[in-house]
Structure formats: C-alpha cells, structure tokens
Write the structure tokens for this entry.
Amino acid sequence: MQSVTQLIPDLLCVSDLKKHFGGVKALDGVDLNVRQGEVHALVGENGAGKSTLIKVLTGIHMPTDGQISFAGKPFDAGSPHASKDVGIQVVHQEFNLLEHLSIAENISIEDLPTSRWGLLNRTEMRSRAVVAIAAVGLDGVNVNRPVSSLGIAHRQLIEIARSLQSDSKLLILDEPTATLTEREKVKLFKIIQNVKEQGVSVLFVSHHLDEVFQICDRVTVFRNGKTVITQDIDQTSPSEVVSHMVGRHVDHTDASAAQAVPFGPIALRTKELKTIANRSEQGVSIAVQSGEILGIAGLVGAGRTEFLRAIFAADKSNGGTVYIKEKQVKFRGPRDAIDAGIGFVTEDRKDEGLILQMPISMNISMVNLKKLFRTGLIRHFAEHHQAVKYGDNLQMKYGKTADAAASLSGGNQQKIVLAKWLASKPAVLLLDEPTRGVDVGAKFEIYGILRALAAEGVAMIVVSSELPELMTLSDRIAVMADHKISGVLTRSEYSEERILQLAYGQTVEQRVAQ
Amino acid sequence: MSDTTVTPTKTITVQGLLQSTGIGLALFLLIVFFSLSSEHFLTSGNISNILTQITINLILGVGMTFVILIGGIDLSVGSVLAFSSVVAGKVMTMTGLGDGTVIVFAVMAGLGTGMLCGLMNGAISAWWGLPSFIITLGMLNIARGGALHVAEARTIYSFPYAFEEFGSISFFGIPILFLLALLLVLLAWLILNFTVFGRMVYGIGNNEEAVRLAGHNVFRYKVGAFAICGTCAGLGALAYMARLNIASPIAGIAFELDAIAAVIIGGTSLAGGRGSVIGTLMGAFIIGVLANGLILMGLNDFMRQMITGLVIIVAVIVDYYRAKYANV
C-alpha cells in the first residue's frame, strides 16, 4: 500500500505558500499534498487561511511566495481560466449561479452546446442538464425553471452538478453542506464517493468534523495561515483534530453550563403569528423569558427564518400578534422592532448583515448610529472607540477599525454583526444560523458570548440547522415543521432522534398512536 | 484562538499613493503640461476664465455625486436647470415689487423648482424600486417641456441690476460664483462624512438591505439624495442667470452628461457606495482645464470633445483597477 502511493506522484503539491494582504498574513507558509483519487479534508478555524488557499488555487489571488505544482507540472495560478484548464473545479461557499437563467443554462454555462449554425442547441442543453441534476439526486426537477425559483439547498446542488460537468481532476468543495439538510447531505456524500471512484481527487473544506470523518481519507489542519499537520483519518480522532485546530483543548461544557440565574419575566411572546410564506392555519405561538435561550429546530423550508423576519417586521406578516413584555405591539418595520428592544442577527452576512466595503467601525455603529450621535453629526473618534470596545469584548481579530469588514474572516465578520446588535443594547435578540461558516473555535466563543448575554438577562431565539449547537446552547428547543410548532422540548428531553422526528412532522400524538 | 494581535502597519505603496492622490496628481500633471505648452495658460485672466467655465458643472456634479453614491443616476439635471431658470426668471422680471424682494423670491423659486423635480425623481424611483435612469429620463423631458411652456419658448432677460452685478463680482480674479460653488463642495463633504444622512448615502449604495434591516428609512434617504441633486440643479440655474443675465428654456442641454463625467472622473463608482465629492471637484477641474488647455494649444473644439471622451473612458479603466486593489 505504502509503495503504491509513492509510485503515483501527488496530484497537487503546495509548498511554503504565502499570501500577505498588507500587514495581514493570510497564508504564512502552508503545505498541502493531495493524492490522486483521495478525499482530502481541509479544516481550520476562521482566518486559518482555507479560503485564501482556494482563492490562490483558482487564480483569484496571486500568491506572495511559494510553489504549487499540479499533476507533476509547476502550476502558475494566473487566472480562473488557467486553473479550469488544468482541471480544478471549485464549488464556492458563495453561489456563482445566474439567478434569472434556467437550471439548464446554468449547468451548461461554461460550455454551451451549439448547433451547426452557431445557434444554441437547447435540446442538447436540456438533456445534458437532466443527466447532470439526476447525478446529484434532483431527478424530476424541471430544468427550465429559473434558478431564482429554487431554495438555497437546491441551488447548492445545482452548483455541484455544474462543476461535475466538466472534466475535473480536482474538485474543491468549500463548505458544501452548510445549507443542506440531512437527506441531501447523504446524497452529496454518495456523489463524492462516485467521483472518487472515477479517480478524481476531492478537497473537502468543512467545519463539520463528523462529515470529515465520514467521507475523507486524510485531513490537513491549518492554523493562523500555517499547516499544522496532515494525518490519515483512521489514525486520528475528532478531538485530536480539534485540538490541532485551536492549539488547545476545547472544553465543551463551557457553553452548556446550566443556567446561572433564574429567568426573568416573559420578554417576547407571539400569538398565532403567520408569516408571508405561511401555509398553516394556526401560525406560531411561542414565548421566551428574559435570560432564556430558546432554540428553534426544523428542516430547511419549515419557515424558521420567515418566522424571525416576521417578528422583526423585516417582512410583512400575515396575521397574528407580537407582545413585548406582555404588551401588544405593532411594528411597521425594522425600526419599530429595534426601538422596542429587538435585535436580529440575520442568516446572510454578505447580503443582509454587513456592508462589506465599509470599515468595521461603521458597520458596528450601523444600528445605534442615531442614538450614538443624536445631533445627526458623526464623531469618528467616538465611533472608533465603540468598535474597539466591542472588538475587545468579543475577541475580534482585526487590523484597524478602519479596515473594510470584507478583510476579515467569516467568524470575525459574524462578530461584527453581533457587535452591531449588542451596541443597540437589545432586550431580545433573534439569531438566524449564528455560526454558519464559522469554525469550531470561534463557534464556542460565540456560544460563550451568547451565554454571557443570557446571564445579563437578554432573551434569545436561535434558529440553527445544527442540532448539537441547539442542544448545547438552548434552554428549550421548539421544533418547527411546515410553518407550525410541532413540539417543544426541555433540556432533559433533548435527543437528536426526538428533534428529527418532530422536524419531520411527527407529533407526539402520532408517535403514541404508532 | 491564539493571542496574536495584528499590529497596524503603515506602509506607503505606489498603489496606495495612487489611490489617495490619483486624480489630484493627474490634474497637477495636466496643469504642468499646459503651462509648458502655452504661455497664456497660467495667466490670471485665463485662470479666472477656467473657474467661470467649470462653476456650473461643479455645482451640478456635487448634486450628482449624492445620487450616484446611492447607486442611482440623474439624467434630468440639465433640463431641470433650464426649468428652474425660467421659473426664477419669470419671478425676477415681475414688476411692482422691490428689487430685493424679487431677488429673494426668485432665488427661492429657482431652488424650489429644482428641489421639487428632485423629490419627484427620488420618490417615484424609490417607492416602486424603479431604475432612476428611466424615471429621470422622463423628468428630462417633463422639465424641458415645462421650461419651454413657462417661458413661451423665449429667453427671459433684464433682471434687477443688483442681481446682474452680483454675478460679476470677483476677488483677486476669482469669481464669486466659483467661491460659492467651492463652499457647496465643502458643505457636501461635511454632510457626506460627518452626518448620519451622509453615512446612509454610502450605506445604501453598498448594501441597501443591510441598511434597512439596521432600522433605517431607506426611502427617505434615497429621496433626500435626489432632492439634493435637484436643488443643486436649481442652484446651477441661478449661477447661470447671474453669469449670463438671461434665463433660457434651452439652457443646460447635455449638462447632465458633463456632471456625470465629472463625478466618474473623480473616482466615484457608478455602482454606488464609493467615492467622494472632493473627487468630483477634481473631475470638474480636469474637464475644465482640458477644454481650456487644448483650445489654447490650437486644437479645435471637435478634437477637444474627442479627447474629453477619451479621458472619461480612461478614468473608468483606472477606477476598475483601483476597485480591484481596494477590495482584496
């Protein structure tokens, strides 16, 4: 075995690669070797350099220093075309689909089939698309539908289907499961297995170690822009990998410590709140007390995000009432909700949470700007000060407060979003997928921050697709299925199985009947 | 997470230098070039001439900067200038009131007309989320037609003596109208950098949804930006009247294009969210200096126009690279 692997040269060899952005060393000498036909995991905390490496491999960034060779030849990552030509395909964390074009057009966009006269061959394009999406398990979906009509999980699968179209030697998957449900994940892993059997190498970038251990052959750990170690999966363990990632032992009990102070009065209650997308008759009724963290579990499309957006009046609601401190309120828009003491950490950092090109300090003052500067005149120094304060509180890693938010890693960007809402001193904080695209270390830091907030009496509603996260964080978990609450579990009743049963719409009565 | 703190490093790079001084440097080189090629260029008479020529474009450019920063565009400012000027001109030539009163009313009428047109542009495009390109194209026609109608397609003249006199005042060869335009630039700079309104203008241009979810009234800020642009067109109308002592319904044709050019050459992104009014000042200067200098060099006006067009294209290409290096 050992001798065989040595005979075939590694497909991708990255050695001592450096990429500096001004003073920030995003990559500070990383090494990575990917063998022919293996599934290789790349893990590391936020800002460890995973995304930067991918951007160098795909020609988006020029490396500062170091060597890359691909298939035995020196590889000069000059342009996205160059990497595509040698056979590197990437499925990005951010989608690269053309929303208003059809599924079929998106699938074939890199190499559109043409007829003899140079016209688009739609028949061929459609039949290709049908095959391609069947390969990712989306059989039966009409390929003429525009991508904009699809949910986020299906878009991810379309993106994967597209990258499988071209002849690729190395498939890079950047956080492919972030938006997928359990069922779709299983599908994806099957796809990866197939691809691997065809001799294609897969670089699998993920924050989910269970997935890494399920499908990968080897794992490389990055920390602070350097390679820590590369190990065979069967010779390591998740806890060992985590300790390599963070450089210390992570204490899982930190965040799940039992409630320190008794809950206060009810901070927010909804009564039969129906969202714009609501299909059910009764709407959602829940209550959360001061100092309590209420988790909301459910499958993609169960209406969790819509529910939070309806509370916050980000979207119009379809009937129902919201009570703050047991007083009925009627919000005309987000401003009213904020004035009533609600904060909303949205699901999508890039499109809703941050103004990426603006400095960190300006992002943090975005919500409380008018309170901070009642005269309408901005004092930049006070703004900088506020940013430093929250940056320290949340252990944010940044260069200057005047740097653009875009210059930070995912986890630190998420901390900016948190800081922005904390600066408005909310009594109720709504959080939608608060740790999406955030690595293990930063995740636990965020849990710690939320726990501390709860201890200060902030009521929180957390929507998350990660069950372990909800079970660590929440004092209670409400499970939603098809825009309804299908069950509420207290801490002693938590189990993944139970939550999933409820999420799939099996109510307690149904189970009893069985 | 490790405790490494990233220390802010101050390194001066060619790129950084170009970013901060790019347009100013270009303007400086242009001035040096024309000074060397024509002895008439750096005379006080000619400088005064240039300042007079760029004043109206600068005023319109300041307003346009706000609209472009929120990701919009205003094609109507040239027509709105004409409309405002004839409305103000009508008021100013009314008989039976004192000169002072008439001038005050006329100024208010001119600014008011401009602001109203801007408000309409902003309200319609923001309320229905329609592209301002189309809405202001409509306004371009409405205002031009309105101007011709109000003025009965005639030029209005014989304003009060005090008003005509005011337009020709200058200090050490610097026309007062240019000084007022400079004051406007300063005001706009203060608004954009030190007020909540200015912050929101940048915010909306970058990410409207994030601004809305942060609890701000996006509609109001958008309308505000257009209203400022319209008011600047009204101000431009008054400057036009003070300088030429007429109000004409066919004034300001294609002025919007020069204003947009000044903003873009000044490095403000047409996509919104990035740029500054100081850039617009530089942009207006570059257009003015180029026009003046090329004619002094003996080129005809057609050649001048071609070269100005070329500069706009080069400016956008330069801006492309600037954005590319700014966003890593």
